[in-house]
């Protein structure tokens, strides 16, 4: 059965096309900076937003109209698998990502949840074999069920901690079975609401212990996925421990876990942390920790995590600039952790939204590649820091300078070098020129 009858396979028609159901920029076979677009992106569908969510918000119930609405329980879960693969096929999305609870009902016990997962994973595995679609990553949802009210790996309740471990264990087994290329940890409730009731030290130690146990178990079962932590500063918890890239990297280094992890960075989480997305990518890249991307965007006028489909070409360009400078994303990819707006309730909107996101990233990639080819920022930056390439600057960089040697230099230097303009406005105008021209 077809779940999206009104939509046929989407193909690339070029940027003069007026067909809403066509790619204008995303041309999977087009080679940019030495790789095809398909290889650059590894675009992935987020199961939770596309198959499971229905448009509800804190003020209203679901609005989405879906061909599987009349079903329940395992029948619903099975229909969603079929719909997922139909959508990925029609949109030419090679990858997908899911939480355990997105694909199968939890039932009334952990045993039942495991059994339901096995049933659905069988089906997913069959579909993957038939279609060649791949798993970018899976993860355990340890934030929706009421048992996680105090957190999962940072809960005050040891039995809940054990339940979280059981979910992760199963998640790793599923990832291994489906050939998942990455495995994600997002700590939605790993943080605190008030320090008045919180043993922060114990919570963070326990979080590190959980990560270590996951590393050990993955090794034991031969699951070679890249482990990813996804930072987010808040929401649902007031303060989350994996606040941003820098905080997460420091945490991993403190506990000696950094070799085992990279970061899955999400655009809307960056802005919630008061950063740009490219700031987060840069911090990860500098530390060799750029793993994968959750592509979306927030709204400038709304303070929460709106998970909108990315349509901002400026941001997409700077994002792809970092990705290219990183030499790509390795095992990672670009996952659309994005949802259609509540009023975009028709099934067709799922297609139009993904097309918008894929085209935006494709255009961003092309502009970024051209900027790098022309060394627009590199040459400027090289020149800006050229005083560190010779004389006293070179001594500083080589680690040969001391406060005393610098003071002596400053005292004897009657004609200090003049500062030069940072030319920010010109650089931004040049970026605009590239976006408009490419
Ligand atoms: C929520 C997160 C979540 C993770 C996976 O804000 O983005 O969906 O990507 O648990
Ligand atoms: Ca995410
Ligand atoms: Ca989000």
From TrEMBL:
<keyword id="KW-0119">Carbohydrate metabolism</keyword>
<feature type="binding site">
    <location>
        <position position="266"/>
    </location>
    <ligand>
        <name>Mg(2+) 1</name>
    </ligand>
</feature>
<keyword id="KW-0479">Metal-binding</keyword>
<protein>
    <recommendedName>
        <fullName>Xylose isomerase</fullName>
        <ecNumber>5.3.1.5</ecNumber>
    </recommendedName>
</protein>
<dbReference type="InterPro" id="IPR013452">
    <property type="entry name" value="Xylose_isom_bac"/>
</dbReference>
<keyword id="KW-0460">Magnesium</keyword>
<feature type="binding site">
    <location>
        <position position="294"/>
    </location>
    <ligand>
        <name>Mg(2+) 1</name>
    </ligand>
</feature>
<keyword id="KW-0859">Xylose metabolism</keyword>
<feature type="binding site">
    <location>
        <position position="337"/>
    </location>
    <ligand>
        <name>Mg(2+) 1</name>
    </ligand>
</feature>
<feature type="binding site">
    <location>
        <position position="230"/>
    </location>
    <ligand>
        <name>Mg(2+) 1</name>
    </ligand>
</feature>
<comment type="similarity">
    <text>Belongs to the xylose isomerase family.</text>
</comment>
<comment type="subunit">
    <text>Homotetramer.</text>
</comment>
<feature type="binding site">
    <location>
        <position position="305"/>
    </location>
    <ligand>
        <name>Mg(2+) 2</name>
    </ligand>
</feature>
<keyword id="KW-0963">Cytoplasm</keyword>
<dbReference type="InterPro" id="IPR036237">
    <property type="entry name" value="Xyl_isomerase-like_sf"/>
</dbReference>
<feature type="active site">
    <location>
        <position position="99"/>
    </location>
</feature>
<dbReference type="GO" id="GO:0009045">
    <property type="term" value="F:xylose isomerase activity"/>
</dbReference>
<feature type="binding site">
    <location>
        <position position="266"/>
    </location>
    <ligand>
        <name>Mg(2+) 2</name>
    </ligand>
</feature>
<feature type="active site">
    <location>
        <position position="102"/>
    </location>
</feature>
<feature type="binding site">
    <location>
        <position position="269"/>
    </location>
    <ligand>
        <name>Mg(2+) 2</name>
    </ligand>
</feature>
<feature type="binding site">
    <location>
        <position position="307"/>
    </location>
    <ligand>
        <name>Mg(2+) 2</name>
    </ligand>
</feature>
<keyword id="KW-0413">Isomerase</keyword>
<dbReference type="InterPro" id="IPR001998">
    <property type="entry name" value="Xylose_isomerase"/>
</dbReference>
